[in-house]
Amino acid sequence: RVLLLGEGNFSFAAGLCGAPGTHVVATCYESEEEAAGRGGAARSIRRLRDSGAEVLFSVDCTKLKEYFLPGKREFDRIYFNFPHCGRKAGVVKNRELLACFFHSCTEVLAGQGEVHVALCNGQGGTPADQPRREWHNSWQIVAVAAGAGFILSDVHPFKAETIHGYKCTGYRSQDKSFCVEGALNHIFTRSTPPLCLTPLSCKTQLGSQEVSFQVPQVLADKINRGFLEVNSSHPVRTIKEKLSAGLSQAFPLQNISSCLPLLHQGHLRGVCHSNIFWIALSPGEAPSTEETSQGLANAVCFSHFGQDTERNVREGCPIPKQFYLRPSLLPHAQAMMQKGAFSPGTLHLLSGPVFRQCRITPHSMPVFHEMLLVLAVRRGIENSCIQMLVDNIKTTTSSLHQAVSGVKPSITLQEATSFGAELNDFAAFECQLGEVQHFLCVGTDPDPSGSCVGVLRTAPDEFKSSELVVVSASLNLDLLAMLLCGISDWRMLWTSDRRFLQQFPEGELRLFKSFSLYPPSYVHDVSFWVPDGEEFDEVAFHTLARTVSGEMVISIQLRDNFQQPGTGRRSLCYRVTFQSCDRALGCREAAEMQRRFREEMQQHLGVTLR
């Protein structure tokens, strides 16, 4: 079922009618008498009716449900070619027309339907327009559509010559043609609805006890997604399986990922406190002091509270119960090393999601899937084993990238002591966990210098024996998926929109094509006084922005750092940019997020707004 709106002489509708399996409903805003007076209109209307199409007159595109009975409102496609308020209406009035039109479409469009809007060159305001108008002088069609829950899924030239008999008309409400050279057809689809995240409780094993805890709201839609499960076709699982298959050709392989604890307890030596998701167990479920002491003695953990906690253990004082979501699989592997659980010569594979608070950038992830490889080898041959391990990873990664994009990437192993590039958040946190010997970098255009996707290290002295050395490699599967499949924003890996996974049938890796083009962005500034005598926690600030917006903030930039003469009070000004990568985000919704962000900042960060 195809609905055409705002037809001038009905020549476009006449060119579409007669297609097998298609029912056309052609409409115009004018009365039948006015429409028939346009050149060629009477002939096109007869052709439409002869072919079985419906022709309706005096149809207002902003009130569509009034013209169709409930059972006849499910249109698969709605066409609106060259909408205009008429006469010399400016961009503001035409934006208002489009806004009302898109809201009206929501009431008559099928769930998987499309809305096609053709605009003259430059009107849309997207990068597809050549030349591109300044944003304020365009119709801002993507932002206007987002306000009604639509995303731009495709845009291509409007080829008038392919529609037999088509002749544009209606220039300034007259029976005159206008220039359609460079015109574009914008295809919109429904966005997934906004996330309504409710408090989520999660159960997990902590030692011998099952405990429950409330998941941090920023992670509520990311816990237990099952991307690495057997029946998953998600690219992170495909990459893990491909790497595992390649490694099994060089080493005996043992997968030990099924028993990994989600929560850790104790202290995190060397790791910045603000990078950790600290957890409070549900009331009455915290293990006893004796159990906690035993847990600290058996676990390999680290923290700012390390020395205090160790002193409490020695002196028999009560131990503060510190629980946190695992930021890495390495502590679990190190606990196994202490027990001698790794068979020499066998490559042990651990994998699962890990959680780290971090600043907002397109490649900084509060959660990602880690693949940890651990190999115990005889002393003296560790360098050759490292080289064999790295060569295998490089070969598999290069083969996958070439199969997906046809381009051979640059994959390098760089010594940590000579690494010249700035560390990304993944690599920087790995350095907090312990000494890193090498960084594994994958370089692709337009970033040939490489993004660090893995680190290699040998175990500290306390895990070595006179005969064995333990080598480990940690890989960020999410970063690898982004680089291999051309995904520019990590948030897309976690989208609930089915169109993402539909591009990877049965675990096949392909170059990703975004289903949300040129998403609009909204910029807001916030300025505040920092509490006297306190260091401002910027990671907590970014995490609060993630939480309040539901990961709709794409950038936070410090614009000004001012210290007031005399009082010494410090003021900060940040620029916050809201943008979604996968769903519609309208200006009003972004403004509401900014309002809530300002309120939450005062409550949780103790700042004073300016």
TrEMBL record:
The source's superkingdom equals: Eukaryota
EC number, as in UniProt: 6.1.1.20
What PROSITE patterns does this protein's entry cite? FDX_ACB
What InterPro entries would the database entry show? aa-tRNA-synth_II/BPL/LPL, BMT5-like, Fdx_antiC-bd, Fdx_antiC-bd_sf
Q: Which reaction does it catalyse?
A: tRNA(Phe) + L-phenylalanine + ATP = L-phenylalanyl-tRNA(Phe) + AMP + diphosphate + H(+)
A biological process term (GO) from this entry: translation
Cellular localization per UniProt: Mitochondrion matrix
For the protein in the UniProt heading, the enzyme class is ligase
What this protein is called in its record is: phenylalanine--tRNA ligase
- Lineage of the native species? Eukaryota, Metazoa, Chordata, Craniata, Vertebrata
GN (gene name): Fdxacb1
